[in-house]
Design goal:
Oligomer: single chain
Distance between the termini: 28 Å
Structural class: alpha+beta
Function: Catalyzes the formation of phosphatidylethanolamine (PtdEtn) from phosphatidylserine (PtdSer).
Largest sheet: 8 strands, antiparallel
InterPro entries: PS_Dcarbxylase, PSD-A
Shape: elongated
Number of helices: 4
Strand content: 25-35%
Organism: Bombella favorum
Cofactor: pyruvate
EC number: 4.1.1.65
Helix content: 10-25%
Amino acid sequence: MSLIKSFKLVLAPPHRAATPFLGIGLLTGVFGRATPWRLTRALGTAGFAFTGFCLYFFRNPKRTSPQGDNLVLSSADGRVTGISMVPPPPALEMGNEPVWRVSTFLSVLDVHVNRMPVSGTITKIAYHAGKFLNASLDKASEHNERNELRVTLKDGRQVAVVQIAGLVARRILCDVQEGEHVQAGELFGLIRFGSRTDIYLPPGVTPDVLEGQTMIGGETVIAKL
């Protein structure tokens, strides 16, 4: 990545979900630093530091998605921590046949907005309350708080994308609804403060990525349909 691209990534405008956090941080910073007391001034400094962290964490850089109805894109920035053959989530009613699942772990330093892996129609959304285990663990797919989406392509095949909360993450945001048509690379949600996304490919489709590979949400091609 070039130096210019690195600066653009760091200075990208924040997602709207950052608004309340930025407000709290700025108010704490301004009022804290305006007082003569050492303790409250230190609190004000912490408020400004928190504001800076939120600007970084919630950044929402522009992405240029490759064109093609046969492409499955990464839903998030991060690192591939698992590629395995497993049945799709039962709640999404996609059958019991094992398919390839690609898991991408997001650290607190990664961009945390989530993007659609394919173009199609949201035909099922299933939310599950759960634990907050380390999202890099395989069992997080079954035990952690998560939000599952089934996307039906125009040819009838289905792709699932799952937002999984992590050890620090405590809130999953999803901005799409059942019946909504979506485009590959389109922003659809966010997970606060460390998380993971799983993508389940249709039967017969194999991933074109490797464990340990770095993903760029909305740009990296995971598989070809």
